[in-house]
Amino acid sequence: MKNILMALIGILFAQAAAAQKDSLSFDENDKYIYYQTASQPGLNKDTLYNRALYFMKTAALKNKLTLVTADKEQGVVTGKGSFPVSKKAFITAHEDGAISYTARIEVKDSKYRYWFTDFVYTPYQRNRYNAYEPVPGINIAMEHTQGKIEKDDFNEYLKRMLLNSKQVGGVLKAYMLKTSSLPKEDKKIKKISTKEW
């Protein structure tokens, strides 16, 4: 009986540790962050950098995540992304706003890390054509939404932030395993003949 109890406690601790590892946290600047590290034994920094850059440039999330900066020397790729959040009303749901974020990927030999942070909520309003559009000039950092967003909506937005971060992170991990990379640019100089026209 004692062994069964110890095994049960061990399983519960393992589940709690796994849940904490894959969740939103606060960074040193008190901002929400989704942070992950991964190892790729046998791969050098250049290969991992090319794969991270390939992800930012060609991922299926093209309309949701775009490349901002790429520094090969430092092994850093950053991007900006956003995703819509919905509000449920009775039976239907409508877009209530969008949450934008910053993505950062850093690579070293045999390992890489990535995180999503700077989550900013932009509310939507209905325009005269009955379509939802961003409210101009209102951008609220998710850390400062207390009293500006209803508690239920805030909790739903946190869930969406975590879900989106997991999805984008899953796509990134798949790209980091691929052997393909950005095509090398051919720097051919076009020759022009001045004898014929």
Automatic annotation (TrEMBL):
Entry annotated with the keyword Signal: yes
Protein name: DUF4468 domain-containing protein
Presence of keyword Protein transport: no
Signal peptide span: 1-18
Matches recorded under Gene3D superfamilies: 3.30.530.80
Domain DUF4468: 34-121
Keyword entries, A-Z: Signal
Highest taxon of the lineage: Bacteria
